[in-house]
Amino acid sequence: MQTLWQDIRYGLRQMAKNPGFTAVAVLTLALGIGANTAIFSLLNQILLRRLPVKNPAELVILHNVGPKTGRVHSDGDDTESFSFPMYKELRESDSSFSGMLARFGFSASIASHGQTERGSGELVSGNYFEVLGLQPALGRLFSPEDDRVPDGHPVVVLSHAFWERRFGGDPGVLNQTLLVNNNALTIVGVAQPGFTGIQLGKWPDVFVPMMMTVRITPDSNTLDNWNDYWMAVVARRKPSVSEPQALASINAAYHPLLEKQLPKITGWDEPKRQLFLKGKIAFSSGARGRLPLQRDAEGPLAALFAMVALVLLIACTNVANLLLAQGAARQREFLIRTAMGASRSRMVRQLMAESLLCAVGGGALGLLLGSWLMRALTPEVASNIGVQGLSTSLDTRVLGFAAAATLFSGILFGLIPAWRVTRAVVSQTQSLKDQGSTSSAGVSHVRTRKLLVAGQVAFTMLLLAGAFLFTRTLWNLRKQNLGLRPENVIAFSISPQLNGYDMPRTVALFDQLRVRIAGAPGVRGVGASEIPTLTGSANGSNITVEGYQPPKEADDEDVDYDAISPDYFSTLGVPLLSGREFSAADSAASPKVAVVSESMASHFFAGRNPIGAHFAFGGGKKVKPNIEIVGVVKDVQQQHVRSERIPYIYLPYAQQRSLSDMTFYVRTQQNPLLVASELRDEIRRLDTNLPVYDLKTFQRVLDEDLFSERLVAGLSAGFGILAALLAALGIYGVLAYLVVQRTREIGIRMALGAQGGHVRSLILREVGSMVLAGMGLGLPLACGMARLSQAMLFGVRAADPSVYALGVGLIAVVALAACYIPARRATRVDPLVALRYE
Question: Model confidence over 51-81: pLDDT tens digits?
Answer without folding.
Answer: 899 999 999 999 999 888 877 887 777 889 9
